[in-house]
Hints:
Its cofactor is Ca(2+); heme b. By secondary structure, the chain is mainly α. It folds into 2 domains: 7-88, Peroxidase, domain 1 (Orthogonal Bundle), CATH 1.10.520; 107-221, Peroxidase, domain 2. The protein has 11 helices and 2 strands, in the order αααααβααβαααα. The chain has a two-stranded antiparallel ribbon with strand order 1-2. Helix 8 packs across helix 10. It starts with 26 loop residues before the first helix and ends in a 21-residue tail after the last helix.
Amino acid sequence: VQGCDASVLLSGMEQNALPNNGSLRGFEVIDSIKTQIEAICSQTVSCADILTVAARDSVVALGGPSWTVPLGRRDSLDANVPEANSDLPGPTSSRTDLEDAFRKKNLTTVDMVALSGAHTIGQAQCGTFKDRIYNETNIDTTFATSLRPNCPRSNGDNNLANLDTTTANTFDNVYYTNLMSQKGLLHSDQVLFNNDTTDNTVRNFASNPAAFSSAFTTAMIKMGNIAPKTGTQGQIRLSCSRVNS
């Protein structure tokens, strides 16, 4: 939320913000990469750069596009929990909420729709989509019914479901065809295709994988370039989960 500075990796801070709590995971993967890099090349490669490269390599490993990651970021000395609570969009965000949140970081509506396509992989907790599968009308009935056994009305809030139930472990453009079939898992997914201004962008990405890949890589580079710390700003952390002592 303060830029691409690895503040989210600091233990017990932004990780506990409402939009992140119980949702972000995989920190041990970054810690392992950092440990291996430090053994070879001490205090040279920042956690912010590791996180940015890992994001790209994860997409590539799952069949998605590649892009060139600019390097040379430094790590923050702090985190901003209030800003994480106020600025990060959530699963119940409206289209205008999403546009406003992304615009605040100088990302366009097309960037927002493209970055939402990262929901072609990953999972969400039942508590984030329970209201949608029981109470919303712009959802495929069979799809909603299939999700209810693992997400009952009264409990099971931590149970997981795939954000893309069609090709859960492949980075592709099926997320958008799911939206066109009213099979977006989160409210904040389906608002992108709901007789609104982003419908045509969703249609374009659903029918044209190359258009999605191009827009996604452009947006990822832009997001990785948000307010990076360089020069003497910040530090190169020795451990990604805490600032240097």
